[in-house]
TrEMBL record:
The keyword Cell membrane applies. This is Uncharacterized membrane protein, DUF373 family. InterPro entries: P_starv_induced_PsiE-like. It comes from Myxococcus virescens. Keywords: Cell membrane, Membrane, Transmembrane, Transmembrane helix. It is found in: Cell membrane.
Amino acid sequence: MGARSTIERWLERIEASLSVGVTLGTAVVAVLGLAAFLLAIVHRGLLGGTLDATAIGHLLDVGLVVFIALELFKIGIAHLRNRSIVPTVMEAALIAVVRKIVVMELDAETFPRVLPLSLLLLSVGATWFLVHRSHASVGPTSNRE
């Protein structure tokens, strides 16, 4: 029995260390992505680069990827604090689906994917709404889901 508890403690330490590492790694990715996003805006907008529809689409794509990285960072923080991560996971999923729709170029080949992505967006949005509403009525939880 004593060996099992020692092994469990070691596994918990390893999990906590990995969680911290992943959270810090996500923070680094978010900061680097934000820097790349700001540099792209400066280069395209202020230094005379072209700002056509393709460039705007690229900037939106990079901005949404940074936003997703920030949501993943929030998931890591919530996990480290033993809080529920379900609402934040749903927010990240919602942003990811919106990103996919925003950056999609509509043509004859990609148009058939619009309906499934729209249904996915509706489903994830409805799920996020229900999760958000249930968590708001119950209050923050201290256990993981």
